[in-house]
Design brief:
Blueprint lengths: L6 H48 L4 H4 L12 H11 L2 H32 L5 H10 L9 H11 L10 H4 L6 H14 L2 H9 L4 H12 L1 H16 L3 H6 L8 H11 L4 H21 L1 H15 L1
Helix pairs in contact: 1-14, 3-14, 4-8, 4-11, 8-15, 11-15, 13-14
């Protein structure tokens, strides 16, 4: 007697085989993807590892084929030469001071400006915002001479603490920061939340300080990393402004090592390795909030 099977039975017998094949393909694709990502990560990390290795060696053992893969024993010699020729740790403090204060001011003024453009309707708001965005198309190098003349007119070029003001004050309310915060506040802060706070008697700055700032922390973290890294790595403007070696920031101080130790790469690379450590620490500590700030707009838009 022949067995009669329904189409559903045929499908039920075929589905496990098809499902197993699909799972095998998915696992293989995932394995290939992870191998590729691991290879790309190693390629990206290798230059940093080589810099760390080279900072512990002398030039004679750095420029070899193949290049060294493990640290050497010249780190103390390189360090002694580094701190004996330039006030390295003073320069480090200068960079931390300039980058830290500038970043704090940028977060305050840009978030305040973004809040105003996002939530207040005032005459000429859209035209003023468009004009501000247009300034982003002007190359920064065109403002070097006018900015220097302005700093001299203000008396900020004296060899004292005022010499740091040209590095800290310009750009604290920049177009990119205000645009960044405006876009985030528009998508993250509902008007009903602000209206409820006004009904409860909160004044406008109180709404900004107690309600807006806690909500926009991811965007602030992302802007802080961008700003801190940009100011930390700034070279040309501090080179124009700063005249005394004790007031140099790290990029300017490290550049002077090229003339002091033109043939000794280990000293230069040790200084560069120590210089990037604070930035990497700040980034690793803020990586989660940084990614949240970058992706929040896309998630809300979706």
């Amino acid at each position: 007697m022949a067995t009669v099977t329904s189409p559903g039975d045929t499908v039920s017998r075929i589905e496990p085989k098809t499902g197993g094949h699909v799972r095998t393909v998915d696992r293989l694709s995932s394995a290939i993807m992870y191998l590729l990502l691991t290879a790309l990560a190693l390629i990206s990390v290798y230059p940093f590892w080589w810099m760390i290795v080279a900072s512990t060696r002398r030039t004679a053992t750095i420029l070899t084929i193949p290049p060294p893969a493990v640290p050497g024993g010249a780190i103390l010699q390189n360090y002694n030469e580094l701190v004996s020729q330039i006030p390295y740790w003073r320069n480090m403090i200068n960079s931390v001071l300039v980058a830290g204060v500038h970043t704090a001011l940028v977060l305050f003024f840009c978030s305040l400006g973004g809040y105003a453009f996002a939530k207040f309707a005032f005459p000429g708001r859209d035209k003023l915002f468009a004009l501000m965005l247009a300034t982003m198309m002007i190359p920064g190098v065109l403002g070097i001479i006018p900015s220097f003349m302005l700093m001299r007119w203000l008396g900020w070029l004296n060899p004292d603490w005022r010499n740091y003001l040209p590095l800290i004050i310009p750009g604290v309310a920049n177009a990119f920061g205000i645009f960044w915060m405006r876009q985030y506040i528009m998508s993250a802060i509902p008007d009903d939340l602000m209206d409820a706070a006004r009904i409860d008697g909160a004044h406008e700055f109180g709404i900004y300080w107690r309600i807006i700032l806690p909500v926009i922390t991811p965007a602030l973290a992302a802007l802080a990393i961008f700003t801190f890294m940009g100011k930390w790595n700034d070279f040309f403007w501090p080179l124009v402004i700063l005249k005394e070696r004790s007031m140099y920031t790290l990029p300017v101080a490290l550049a002077s090592l090229q003339s002091l130790y033109a043939n000794e790469l280990g000293v230069q690379l040790l200084g560069a390795t120590i210089a990037i450590a604070p930035v990497m620490i700040v980034f690793l500590m803020s990586a989660r909030r940084f990614m949240a700030g970058l992706t929040a707009g896309a998630i809300k838009g979706a």
